Amino acid sequence: MSDTPNDSRRRHSALVVDGPGKSAGRAMLRAVGFTDADFKKSQVGIASTWSMVTPCNSHIGELAEHARDGADEAGGKGVIFNTITISDGIANGTEGMKYSLVSREVIADSIETVAGCEGFDGIVAIGGCDKNMPGCLMGMARLNRPSVFVYGGTIMPGEGHTDIVSVFEAMGAHSRGDIDLIELKQIEETAIPGPGSCGGMYTANTMASAIEALGMSLPGSSAQNAVSRDKRDDCEAAGKAVLALLDQDIKPSDIMTRKAFENAITVIISLGGSTNAVLHLIAMARTLDVPLSLDDFTNIGKRVPMLADLRPSGHYMMSELVAIGGIQPLMKVLLDAGMLHGDCLTVTGKTLAENLAEVTHYPDDQEIIAPLDKPIKAESHLRILYGNLAPDGSVAKITGKEGTHFRGTARVFNSEEEAQAGINNGTVVAGDVVVIRYEGPKGGPGMREMLTPTSAIMGRGLGNDVALITDGRFSGGSHGFVVGHVAPEAFDGGPLALIEDGDVITIDAEANTIDVAIGSEELERRHAAWQRPAPRYTKGVLAKYARLVSSASEGAVTDQDV
């Protein structure tokens, strides 16, 4: 059971199945389909996020089989295993949403655990929702074995060019009285037509694009429809690619370099991507000890324009970008303009520049991606704001349609539920800055997305007249004048905990500041009187997460040096 032709790439599986002392292990594997020949092959773990929990992942079981077939055809032995996923779209606005960001850590832990235990030589991970994608990358990075990520693909538009955000905003419109229950139900029944990730440049498509730009997906993987021949072919090619990476001993640490992360940031800025990318990219970088901070998003954003007219702030959906060529032509434009590092290695075994060498331009008549000399926004829409409200930083998504300045009076809520009630019952009015606190990584715990309140604000027609700030975060589907990831969070006694109704708050997305008009002495007085609230959970995974998690400005990770 040794001295096989590919022993050099079987450094992990050989420890599990080679020699007389591993007879018991081989006996177990025979029961799941291994043959004598299979024990001599490189083992490729196929991490599947299949689940009936959400349409984002409901088709991934079949895709995992295609990835396994690709690994087998290339001379390896594919072994499918599952990890979890949750659904933000279902959980948003509920207590269950507190488990969302937690799931990223659980997914990373589970992939590391299974692959580390079973001795897989390489990994293919297939993700289809915004937490399982960075979770997959973090797990693969910890293992640092030849790996390829596959995006499960985007959903098709619903009837009338609708999607999940259409449903959330329709809920707000119904609350205002603009549509009746029949109209709301019609949108509910038709907005999600089948499998695939949410259709705009929300967090799922943002992270898929970032991972492709990072070099960890095969070219084109981020811009394919979930149910398509292209996506099935992508999975088979990924299975084969891992065997090539094993031959060349190319690992995630060789690909996920500082320059590769700069490429990822550049691409998501040009696409108008989600604020969650800030959180996830910092977390992924920290897994590999690659230095990356909030300020890198500001510095790169000064030279990278926003070019994509994609939802939520724009008009088009990912499936329409797929139809004109995906993100490869955009990356070619950015590379030719000197905005990408072309020498970064990718999972093809080639550099980014080599991958893009034969890529053609978008059709002349397309309107989704603006030319570099006529951008939608000359600088990044992702704004990192500092000030006496956010000494450690905060993150806003300002496309320009919301304006770049907001000054208003605080309307303070100590939970998302309180804020939602205040929006629906008319407590929140034009000129307010809605403050939602104690929803940070520790305080929530879990740093819930505020898609329900931001959608309610839009649905009630207050999108241009109300701002919202929080130590929680936002769905990629949120839009409006919103600022999240405020750090330090309220639970740690950050300034957000000290705000009172009526305080005047100023947000300046040009100067990148967020301040409350209170002197330092008054803030100190309020802090001296402040008492930390009792933890909302004392047992279970949420309590464990709250004890371990870092600040949002550091990626909200639980895997920290000890």
Structure description:
- By secondary structure, the protein is an alpha/beta fold.
- It is built from 21 helices and twelve strands.
- The strands form two sheets. It has an eight-stranded mixed sheet with strand order 5-6-10-9-8-7-11-12. Strands 2-1-3-4 form a four-stranded parallel sheet, with helices on both faces.
- A hairpin with a 4-residue loop joins strand 11 and strand 12.
- Helix 7 packs across helix 19 and helix 9 runs antiparallel to helix 12.
- The longest helix has 20 residues.
- The N terminus is likely disordered.
The main pleated sheet reads as: 8 strands, mixed
Q: Helix coverage percent of residues?
A: 25-40%
Based on helices, strands and strand pairing, what is the structural class?
Answer: alpha/beta
- The shape is globular
Strand content: 5-15%
Rounded to the nearest angstrom, the distance between the terminal CA atoms is: 39 Å
Name the average pLDDT: 96
Give the spatial strand order of the biggest sheet: 5-6-10-9-8-7-11-12
In total, how many beta strands? Answer: 12
